[in-house]
Design brief:
With 217 residues, this protein is mainly α. It is built from 9 helices and no strands.
Length: 217
């Protein structure tokens, strides 16, 4: 309570292009002394600009789902009064829907809004409001300035974006394991926890220690 960051999940700390590029180099070093290396290893990008381009491509394909998530959060924030026993749910697509298309996600948000609207007297969950919030969120996170500024690295769901990146740089079930990229990126962040100008996790620890009356670490 009282400790909030804009980064959506802990994986967002592992996504800067510099960290990913260095993580990929760590992975390649695993094979330096081996006679045979998997074919996907040679396709891994080793250029920071290429890594940035791939992350932007992944963000573009994930933008509709992220807009739906953001809009759903804003809908619940507008809910007046107590929601009672109404459980907040993330909108989902039908199996046949294209997740990179905004229209199915907008429709999914409308279905969730209609579900909540049928259980509460709040006017926040109208179809018109859901469409407005989705379109606003989608416009914000697909704007050129937003994408070029890599702002999605902070706002998007880091775990899903990291997984999309893994599949983009090494497609196939037998390609680069998810855990390798996460472990290598975490090692890079651990080597430089001041990557963002301050150590958020030390700040969190010291905040908790202060509440407990302990000295900072």
């Amino acid at each position: 309570n009282g400790f909030l960051w804009r980064r959506h999940s802990i994986e967002n700390y592992l996504l800067p292009p510099l960290v990913i590029r260095s993580a990929i180099r760590r992975i390649k070093e695993r094979f330096d002394r081996r006679d045979k290396a998997p074919m996907w290893l040679y396709a891994l990008p080793d250029n920071i600009d290429r890594v940035s381009d791939i992350l932007q491509e992944c963000a573009g394909s994930r933008a509709p789902q992220e807009a739906c998530r953001i809009a759903n959060h804003r809908l619940w924030r507008e809910l007046s009064g107590s929601p009672g026993r109404i459980g907040k749910q993330e909108p989902v697509l039908d199996p046949v829907d294209d997740p990179s298309n905004p229209t199915p996600w907008r429709n999914a948000l409308c279905r969730e809004a209609e579900r909540v609207s049928s259980l509460t007297a709040s006017t926040a969950f109208s179809r018109q409001n859901a469409i407005r919030l989705f379109d606003e969120a989608y416009a914000d996170i697909t704007a050129v300035e937003y994408v070029n500024g890599m702002e999605f690295l902070i706002d998007f769901h880091g775990r899903d974006l990291l997984k999309a990146l893994r599949h983009q740089v090494a497609p196939g079930a037998d390609a680069l394991p998810d855990g390798w990229l996460v472990d290598a990126a975490a090692a890079e962040y651990k080597a430089n926890p001041l990557l963002y100008g301050k150590d958020d996790f030390r700040d969190l620890a010291n905040g908790a220690r202060a509440l407990a009356g302990l000295d900072p670490v």
